[in-house]
Amino acid sequence: MSKFFLKLSICIVIILLFVPLFASAETGQEEELMQTIIRLLQIKIELLKTQLAFLTQGILLKPGVPVSETKECSQLEISWGLVQGVTGYRLYRDGAVIYEGRERSFVDSGLVPEKKYRYMVYGLYRGAEGAPSEVQEITAPDVCVPKIPKLNFKKKSCGGQVTVYWISDSEARVYQLFRGNREVYNGSLTQFADSGLAPNHEYKYKIRAGNEGGWSDFSDPVSVQASNVCAPSTPEVSFVIPELSIEGILSAELRSSPSDSTRVRPAATNRAVMAIKVEAIYSDIAIKKIDLFFDSQVWRYLDKIKVQYGGRTAVEEGLSRESFTRIGSEDIYRIRFANLQFLVRDGRSGTVTIKVDVKEFLSGTLPRYITVFLENNSIRGVDEANLQQYVPRSGGGKEGSFSRTFRIE
């Protein structure tokens, strides 16, 4: 009902209420009857006011088009290339500054799923902006990032082991667990048995969950003490290998060739940048998974990475940003080669060779130095007793014994 017709109806009702009053005055009825009619008129007017207020309130509180809640829960990881001579970078989203600093990547969170955003970055020269990058229009993922998992722990009575478990998030697809600053698990399971720890030593763990929309924040670090030393059930004896044992031992060492500072040029293919000797004893051991770590965004410079064993290619992968996982807050990126199927025979050794193809056309300043390395437990295999084997057991890391730097020029 419009306001005009509402007012018109009220006027008509008021006029009709006054008619009896005028009629009673003309016929000379008593004053008491007139007072009664006036009181009734006042009551009816108040009633009309109440009805009018209720009707007006109903119109204001019930719009014709319902308003839906907009979720702001998606995120994007924005990264950019190195600019020589700058003191920092400034990142804009839709014309507003969202980051300023020396890092060359930024996780932009709290975005509307499936909404397009425009990004642009400037190099800073003592605070002054240089030339801008091209504007990149990127659509936010259509899913929300998962919630932060909550860590729980179970300990065996002894043996230097901690089992870490967490409640599954329906939105999560993968979990990343760290002990201190080292990743110890990455996968879809919701528990991990961390063994080989120093008995009674305290360790800190943190975890985050990920999906197509990105990673959640890390949980707060939680401290837990590894279980104590197990008392021997029999007197200790020297190490004896049972004749029928099928439990194996896998070892690894870095080959001297290729050496550090191997030179590769644009459009070069099948250039070896690292080689690792692996050896099995007491059992055949099948290599199932290899993790390689790089200290820069190598997909900007390399077209492919190949893993060969015994001169035969076990896996070859074309590279993109999605091929890598950023590790921690440092500029370290991991690529994982899973579902490998090459066998190291009992009592024999073989060589795992890492080869690269360099992009034909490169932008930016050359030469470019890139370091490839293994962390501890980067190579994983299974022996005939179906026991997991991990190498290297020590010496991993960028500055460790399983590291090579090659030069693109």
Descriptive overview:
The protein has 409 residues and is mainly β. The protein has helices at residues 3-26, 31-61, and strands spanning 74-79, 88-93, 96-101, 105-111, 116-125, 128-132, 136-139, 151-155, 162-166, 174-179, 182-187, 191-194, 202-211, 214-215, 222-225, 249-254, 262-264, 271-281, 285-294, 302-309, 312-318, 325-327, 332-337, 342-344, 349-358, 368-373, 379-383, 388-391, 403-408. The chain folds into four domains: 3-55; 74-139, Sandwich (Immunoglobulin-like); 151-225, Immunoglobulin-like; 249-408, Sandwich (Immunoglobulin-like). The strands form six sheets. Strands 17, 19, 22, 23, 24, 26, 27, 28 and 29 form a nine-stranded mixed β-sheet that branches. Strands 2, 3, 5, 6 and 7 form a five-stranded antiparallel β-sheet that branches. Strands 10, 11, 13, 14 and 15 form a five-stranded antiparallel β-sheet that branches. The protein is extended, with a radius of gyration of 36 Å. The termini are far apart. The model is unreliable at 23-27, 52-69 and 240-245 (pLDDT under 50).
